[in-house]
Design goal:
The longest helix has 33 residues. The two termini are 38 Å apart. The protein has 531 residues and is of the alpha+beta class. The strands form 5 sheets. A 4-stranded mixed sheet has the order 1-2-9-6, with helices on one face. It has a single domain, classed as Orthogonal Bundle (Cytochrome p450). The chain is built from 18 helices and 13 strands. Helix 8 packs antiparallel against helix 9, helix 8 packs parallel to helix 18 and helix 13 runs antiparallel to helix 14. Helix content is 48%, strand content 9%.
Length: 531
Amino acid sequence: MSSIDFSSLDLVSPSMAGALLFIVMSVYYFLKGQLFQILGTRAHRKLNKPPEASGAWPVLGHLRLFRGPKLFHITLSEMADKYGPIFSIRLGLRRAIVVSNWELAKELSTTHDLAVASRPQMLAAKHLGYNYAMFAFSPYGSYWREIRKFVSLELLSMRQLNLLGHIRVSETKSSIQQLYKLWADKGDGVMVEMRQWISDLTTNVVFKMIYGKSYSGDDVDMEEARKFQGIFKKFIHLFGANVVGDMIPWLRWLDIGGHEKSMKETSKEYDHLLTKFLNEHNDRRERYGPDKTNRDFMDVMISMLKNADIDSYDADTINKSTCSILNIAGADTTANMVTWTLCLLMNHRHVLIKVEAELDIHVGKGRIVEESDIPNLVYLQAVIKESLRLYPPAPLGGPREVTRDCVIGGYHVAAGTRLFLNIWKLQRDPKIWSDPLEFQPERFMTTHSNIDVHGQSFELIPFGAGRRVCPGIKLAMKMGQLVLASLLHSFQFSNLNDKLVDMTQTEGLTLSKATPLEVIITPKLSSDLYA
């Protein structure tokens, strides 16, 4: 799920480089020598290991190559052009392999699925993830299996998503009404920042599904909403930050960059809000009893967990950590998907015109879009697939850890090695995709019509594959398709000053647009349809 941000690393600043490197290198080479004595240097060197990228420094490894200005996944993609579809890098003292073609992705997700199903123990997962209770970042094991199964059945199954469809529909309609009101108040040519609008909408939907309340709106305490939004952004940023203590454990005590301190502070703030939500649910249940007809996910978890103690995690910790990651991943992933798709459409007017024509044929101008219309909007679906191909939510799929020695692509990979699956590179492979850098949705109606995004077509895995595939694919697609169809059916969009939309990316928990998405909106339907 996460991308990695190396831009804040300051490992080679003159103020500390000399003394620290002397101490660390001395210990490093001593331990390295002892390790080779134990394992046997000769036997170790005979193993057919993946090629290692050049340019590594002692202790720091390849870290200096990832400090920018290029983003991590872009730099790794360029390395793949030089070293091949599987190569190794060193992130401080941590060894990692980078895989970037569909054949190896399939091998990892089938033959070696169990061996690469775990997550490395990282400080963000410890401090922000309730000491690894947040299942998306939990090591592979019984706890992860039990919580993921529960989430898949009780919130993200197709049955549950259909039961909660009214939330998607009502929140989308309400947000469209707000856009129309903004236009009506200010008149023609009103400029709207759509990135925030999309984020508010997806967050409201996920918030209601999980907590039974809105995140923003006229009936919400805006002070609390703004506070939550600030914590939410810090949380996402810190989960995507690359922390020196994760890569060079001996330097953790220095907390270079102040990441660990920020994680602890943000964790307390976020836990305070989640505890408040949980107490509200418990108080309501004590007053009125369990609501069996209108339960949100936090209610379901309270009922199912009760006094559970799973792998030493108490019921409240499991509830808060699970609701937290579902909220963040569900809202942020869907928002980024819709935002990037709208950006691409704004920069490719001929594609936008085709989408609008399809909406006119299957929906018309006499009513609003309904979820039942989506199966008929095949070109819109192709547009979203192509957007996910070019801008996958997590371009590196979230870090994995190899838990046992295995042979991948003919190379020996030792247990303890970290794994990055470069989805960004994989989905731009010219051997699979003609004109791979071009936005061409038509490919999913012709040459690649049989490919979907659910983790079975390894040429296109924007949500991952194998045991660690994102469990929220169905929610993201249902929500994304409805929001985009409703927007394009209800409004005409124009570029500000006729300029192309800036496609600069920023890294964090997911791949986000670095700059606002400012557009000019004009209603396309009769006023009564916005009421």
